[in-house]
Amino acid sequence: MEEKAQGAIEYLLIIAAAILVVAIVILAVTGALGSGQDQGDQAVLDQNGAFNDLNALQG
Question: How much is the pLDDT for 52?
Fold first, then answer.
C-alpha cells in the first residue's frame, strides 16, 4: 500500500511540475507579445509625429 501511495504522489508532483513549466512559458510568451505591441504602438506615434512636423514646416 505504501509503495502505491509513493508512486501516486510522485506522479502528481510530475504533473504539477509540468503544469508549472507550461504556465511559465505562457506568461513569458504573452509578456513578449505584449511588449512587442507596445513598441509597435510607440513607433506609429513617432512616425505620426514626424509627419506632423514635416507638414508644419511645409505649411
Answer: 78
